[in-house]
Every structure is written in C-alpha cells, then in structure tokens.
Sequence to fold (395 residues):
Amino acid sequence: MKLAILTQPLHHNYGGLLQNYALQQVLKRHGHQVETIWLTVPKPKVTRFNVICSRCKRTILNCLFPDKVTPFRYFRTDKEIAAIHKNTNGFIRKYISRSVYPVLVNNLRDYVNDNCFDGYIVGSDQCWRPKYNQGPFLPIMFLDFAKDIKNIKRIAYAASFGSDEWEMSPVLTDICASFAQLFDCITVREDSGVSLCKKYLKVNARHVLDPTMLLAREDYIALIDANNEPKSAGTLFYYILDPNEAKNSLINQMAAINEQIPYTVMPNIRPETHAQDDIRSYIDSCVYPRVTSWLRAFLDAETIVVDSFHGVVFSILFNKPFWAIGNRERGYSRFTSILKQFGLQDRLIDEAEIEAFKSNMCKNGLSQKPIDWQRIDDILEQERNRCTKLLIDSL
Fold:
C-alpha cells in the first residue's frame, strides 16, 4: 500500500524523529510504500517593527516585574535555523521518507489528491493534544481533509493526548469526534487515552507501544555503528528538557554517590528559548548534536536520569538503570503509563519531591537499585509482537 504519515513537525526533537523513523521502518519491512507529509504554514514575516514592539514589551515588563527579568526575544534568521538543525535535518534526509517539499495546510487536500494514497496513519507523539496542534493542525491530525475520500484506510497508531485530562473545548471535541468515528483502527500511546477516546470521541481504542519500541535494540545499535559514533564522554547520562537547579543538584549528587561522570547530548545554548541575543556570535554552540550521538549516549551509560518520555523509552530499550523525573507540564500520564506497563513505577521521581528522594538516596542506596531486565525484555517482546501485528493487520 502507498501510505502517508501525519505526525508532529520533524525538527530537533530526538524522540519525535525516532518514532517517525521506527514507524516507517516497520511499515517498509512489511512491504508498504510510505512517506511522512511535511506539513507547514506560511512563515510570518518578521519586520523591524515586530522586533521593536517585542523589545518595548520586554522593557515594560522588566520595569514592572524587576524580580522576573524577561530576556529579549531573538528572531533567528533562516540561515541560523538551518545551522542549528543541520545534524537533525541530515538524519531526516538520510533516514526518513518525507514529501520532497513542504505542504502548506491550505494545499493539503490538493496534495493528497495528486498522490492518491491508499491510507493515512496518524501518530505518534502528542499529535492529539490541542496545545501542540493549534489552528488547523488538530482537525488535520484527525484526517479532516480526507473525510470525503473513499476506499482508504484511516489508522491512528500510538496517538497521544499527552495528558489524562481532556483539554479540548466542547466545539473542538465534536469536530474531532466526527472524524475519529471514520477511522478503521485507533490505538493510543497511554492507557488513559483508551478511556478518553471512549468518553469524548465515542470510539474504541487500544493501548499500544510507542513506535520506537517496535524496533529492537540491535536496530539502533546498527544506526550508531553505521555513523561511526565515538564513545560518550562520561558514565551518567542525563537528558533534561526542562533544566533547573533541583534537577542539576540531583544529577550531581547521584554521580558523586555512584562515582560516575555526568554527560549530556544537547546544545550548550538552548536556541528554542529565543532568549540568546548572542546566537549570531556562538551559533556553533546552538547546534543540536547528531541523532546517533544521542543514541550512543544511552548505549554507553551506566546510569541515566531523564525528564522525557522518550528518555524513558530508550533507557528501557538499552537496559540501562534509569530515573525519570515526572514532568507534569509536558504530560505526567505519559510517564505513569509506560512505567506501569513494565512494572517500573518505582523509577519515577515527582519533580516536587526531588529533595526527599535525594535524602533517601543517601540513606538507602536508591541510586543503585537494580532492575530485572530479563523480565522487562520478555514483556517488551510480547508487546512488540502484539502491537506490530495489530498495526499491520489494520492495513
């Protein structure tokens, strides 16, 4: 079959890139032709007036709230954006089948009519979360553009709401429910998504693994080897999307107790904050490392600390002792669902309880608490077979 995938934008999010890569690999191995639609909106023009208004706004806020100084927003140029994403864009070009040019949302219907796809797969990541899919994007993720197309398959694989609370307005709920009811198969990434689909979308859904877990550890090691990734620079890998003093303190204390060297794979300057006026001068420090460097970091680690869903996923895949810091803003149910699925709930640290955990870590040796990896691998293999069969049979 000729299949199109719709997912969150492919930029520099390592988990987002690898879930799309993995889903494509599974489909290709079963003989399907697949591409991810490169969906975009017209880029707004940033004028000098916009920049001046932004600086005036920040100046006023800084005067009104001196204790919460807000840095000036920096509008990056296309050249700077290309430089920052050069490694992750290189991975997309090499390993992900994507439409050869960006498809504007207004032209999506024309694009799919011209390409005559046999089916559409939505997923994974938080593709059904309103806060991450504003404007026309959320209905698109429910295939609104394909409502009148006959004889096609409509599949949601590991779609995520990102939360166990319903975040859609009543109007948006009715719109998305009408499209969801046209799907041939709906699967969700979190167990809470099953009940959300039933209650609000009036459809039955099944709980499945994230696409990244449909591939084996050896598949990712092959990627690392193919790119000749050098050995990582430490022994305690931390992947923190929202750094703060409490998390840094936990990482340093755990490294000291375990006599390990902490390391990460992230830009020295986080360009997504839009707060670095010196990006022009230090552009090399803003570049996201290679995807395979990120994978190698999991392979080499003796201990891992993450506040990311896919950080948990790859810790499990690579059989590494890990601790997950629950990130409620990004979606707490994403952590509890996968940890419960593998019986690893005790690896979760609530961000509000980091200090208590640090204290217990010193007293009880928590940092070296073992995991029965044979049991985990047995669960993973069984679930991988079930979910792969469900996906392929649905087509």
Q: What stands out?
A: The longest helix spans residues 373-394. The CA atoms of residues 238 and 305 lie 5 Å apart. The radius of gyration is 22 Å.
